Amino acid sequence: xxxxxxxxxxxxxxxxxxxxxxxxxxxxxxxxxxxxxxxxxxxxxxxxxxxxxxxxxxxxxxxxxxxxxxxxxxxxxxxxxxxxxxxxxxxxxxxxxxxxxxxxxxxxxxxxxxxxxxxxxxxxxxxxxxxxxxxxxxxxxxxxxxxxxxxxxxxxxxxxxxxxxxxxxxxxxxxxxxxxxxxxxxxxx
Length: 189
Fold this sequence. Notes:
Blueprint: H1 7-26, E1 46-48, E2 53-54, H2 61-75, E3 80-82, E4 90-106, E5 112-127, E6 132-147, H3 155-186
Parallel strand pairs: 1-3, 1-4, 2-4
Antiparallel strand pairs: 4-5, 5-6
Helix pairs in contact: 2-3
């Protein structure tokens, strides 16, 4: 009823597929994991990231964005980040050109409950040795939608809730912007 295989037959039957799998797994195909490579010159080790400028009507978002970009660069583990340009190998400068907020969702009382935040940013990464811009984007645009939870019916409570959630939204968008900028710089997109 059951056919019995010898150990040499089993070995021959599975040896070729396993060998082929090993060959294909170790052969280079030209692809790499995102976030692992860098197309920057090897001598760039210290990156200066001075505070971003803020041309928007929202206060303190430049501090949040600057911190997020610095953290993202540090997270790559290969670069030392300093807050000034002098003595660095490269400098990343940025400017928040505009932040727009518009309601995109409404509750049963026709009050705005969901907002679209749109940030427009100008960013440049410059090689300090050659003074050549290695990467730039004069109108990087990042969007994110966020809910405004309504706690209580008091207008003051709604106002403070909006401000708190606006800060939270700014942090989330700043994280997305930082990841986009650093990945673009390091992976030459």
